[in-house]
From TrEMBL:
Residues 70-186 form the HD domain. Keywords: Nucleotide-binding. It comes from the Bacteria. InterPro entries: HD/PDEase_dom, HD_domain, HDIG_dom, tRNA_CCA-adding_enzyme. One of its GO terms (molecular function) is nucleotide binding. Pfam families: HD. This is HDIG domain-containing protein.
Length: 222
């Protein structure tokens, strides 16, 4: 990678981060950047733009492809940004949390699935930041961990065998994860008020279950 490419990628990174940390709706900039301007389709940012080619099961994601969902999640996260202790980690996680769906999405039994996209995505997050020569170790580790654990609330709520509360507690700030979790759950199409209320209830139930294991009382999400 020549010096010009390094500078261009750093400029893009800085511009994205500026919008993630300051905009009321970062998706306004991000949609134009990732969906309309093909000059921006350079690695590793293609790891994000490629998500517009990844379908999702309409039952769970009536909003459309993965990138459409991610844009909605980013805006939901921006609404909760002031509650975060690590705003850069939360906002980059909202953008990158489903990055693992590109290699894992397959049609099984006539429905779209993305098994292990959380684990695969955690590794891809590291690849993304390494390709930018990013030296923000706390950011890199934080976003990778948020991506790795962003499905845990669903597993815990539904008492699924994929839940791993003990390991999760050791690796991540649960209250920060809950901000990503609720943004992820609300960042989808056609939710009515009762469905939104249920999502808030479910995330708080997740926090209660984790509290029982950790012995720490986590703040409720509202």
């Amino acid at each position: 990678m020549n010096e010009g490419e390094v500078i261009k990628k750093q400029q893009i990174f800085n511009e994205i981060e500026r919008h993630l940390l300051n905009d009321e709706k970062p998706s306004i900039f991000l949609k134009e950047f990732f969906m309309e301007n093909k000059d921006n389709f350079i690695y590793p940012f293609t790891m994000i733009s490629d998500l517009q080619d990844v379908p999702q099961e309409p039952k769970h994601h009536p909003e459309g492809n993965v990138l459409v969902h991610v844009m909605m999640v980013v805006d939901e996260a921006a609404r909760r940004r002031s509650l975060s202790k690590e705003k850069d980690i939360l906002m980059w996680s909202s953008l990158l949390h489903d990055i693992g769906k590109k290699p894992t999405t397959k049609k099984r039994k006539n429905r779209w699935t993305s098994y292990d996209h959380d684990k695969v995505g955690a590794k891809m997050v590291m690849e993304f930041f390494n390709a930018l020569n990013c030296t923000k170790e706390k950011l890199i580790k934080g976003v990778s961990s948020m991506t790795r654990w962003h499905m845990q609330a669903l597993f815990v709520i539904n008492d699924l065998p994929f839940a791993s509360i003990g390991e999760m507690i050791e690796e991540i700030d649960i209250e920060e994860l809950s901000l990503l979790t609720i943004s992820d759950r609300l960042g989808r199409g056609k939710l009515n008020p009762s469905e939104k209320d249920k999502i808030v209830h479910d995330v708080n139930f997740f926090l209660e279950k984790v509290s029982e294991i950790s012995g720490y009382k986590y703040k409720k999400i509202h």
